[in-house]
Amino acid sequence: MKGYDGLAAYLSEKCLVEQFNDMSLAGNISGSLDTTTNDPVNLENLTEDQMHLKDTLAAYRTTAEAAARIQAAFREHSLKLRYQSVQFLSPEEEARQIVAAMKIQHAFRNFETRKAMAAAARIQYKFRSWKLRREFLNMRRQAIKIQAAFRGFQMRRDYRKILWSVGILEKVILRWRLKRKGFRGLEVNPDEDMKDEKQESDVEEDFFKTGRKQAEERVERSVIRVQAMFRSKKAQQEYSRMKMAHSQAK
Q: Is 135 strand, coil or helix?
């Protein structure tokens, strides 16, 4: 009773006193409960707080005595009932009760054993699942590393092929522009070079420079596109589809 502690204490005290009186009338408790306060202290010399404290102590003393004597009477009554049940119990009934108690104990032990075994089985199942999952994650991580290394190797190989193709294309363009018989970097006949140089005019030199510049720009753009392909997954997929379509067309 929140906010009504004094009222709750008063009602509890009266309830215990009434129960004690009822049990005393029924013959379950001998003696009487002392509810009077024979205190020689002069009440006129006490303050209001001291009077309240005195009444509180008296109520606590009465309540504690009543509760103790009621509990003692309950224990005494329970012991009497047990003694009577044992005294009037026949040997056959006692034997049946012993057998029933043994069966109950055996069933309880079996239940505890089954519960422990089920718990152990669950723990083992969880541990095996965790172990298999850990092994699977390790294998998947290793497979991803191997696949990444293989894809990197394939990309580098394809990139070198593209560079080689671009180099060949550049040499073909330069050969066509210079109107020479060999590729750039190969040794040619010096006499033929002198004749070709004398026949070239200033217009051809300008045209050669412009064409060379355009070829270099195209090569740079091609290299940039190839590099961008390695940075974009979508570009790699498009490159693979184009390569597959070209192979099927052949």
A: helix
Average pLDDT, the chain: 75
pTM for this prediction: 0.32
Per-residue model confidence as pLDDT tens digits over 182-197: 444 444 455 555 555 5
Contact 1, 8 (CB under 8 A): yes
| H or E stretch covering 143 | helix 91-178
B/e letters for 211-250, b = 16+ CB within 10 Å, e = fewer, are: eeeeeeeebeebeeebeebeeeeeeeeebeeeeeeeeeee
What are the DSSP calls for 49-103, one per residue?
HHHHHHHHHHHHHHHHHHHHHHHHHHHHHHHHHHHHHHHT--HHHHHHHHHHHHH
